[in-house]
Amino acid sequence: MKKLILITSLIAITLSSCLKDSPTTVNFTNAGNIVNFPLSGTPNFGSDALTGSIDTIQFAVDYATATPNKALSVTLAVDQTLTTAYNTATSATTGVTYEPMPTSVYSLSTTTVNIAAGAQYAFVTLIVQQNQLDPTKSYMLPIKIASANGVPISANQSVHYFHIIGNAIAGPYTYNYTRYNNGVGPSVGGVLPPVNEGTVTLVPDNANQVEVASAYVGIRYVITFDQSGTTLSNFAVSQNASDVSSALTNSGVSIVQPPKIITADPVNGVYEFYYIAKNSAGSLRYIDDKYSK
Fold this sequence. Notes:
3 helices, Immunoglobulin-like, eight-stranded antiparallel sheet, mainly beta
């Protein structure tokens, strides 16, 4: 997954008290000198969530000034004391405690950002190998503006809290897929042999939701649950609405019966669901998907 944190009109949000702007341009005439990360800080915490197995993020370092006639060197730093501070401030209410992201799973293109004379921003690239982390744990990588050669640094938009939210049932599972050529399932036959699709990953959306694809036209299940300590309960399953729409548009497949739970066993790591679909020829298909640790 590649994410690009752009600046353009976002600078107007950062400096709304001192800039004149239109929907498409920013006027720096009355701007004071300040260095910042657009779309950063705790108000934009959600924007810094990492969700792909490998995330490539480009984020901007912005030099807001009316006269960008000199080059500027800005130093960035990873500061894990900010992870501790964030946990202290939020863990009691969110239920999420972040661990420092190991240095072995990420790379930063540079920590010395050079903004050329005449320019007002430069980009930095961060690559995170999320697939090398324990998906049940939450991790944080706070990157801050450490110094800017004497230019003031924004007080509230100088840290990107890049983070991954762990999930108790996320991770790799053995996947078995069975398709019945009917609309009622195993009771009347018409079954194709179960297919071992190998290993798939239950990918966390947040601490209480994961998604995983069914082999039949790739519609993802959305699995939710409640958690109290180590106890998981109230499992529910639905389908990704965008995938359902795409299946109808691209393959002519519609959902006759939304998914239901056959098994949701977090102790043994077994989850099995079924749903009924109608293919482009009008024939019903009973789909059984089983995911096992």
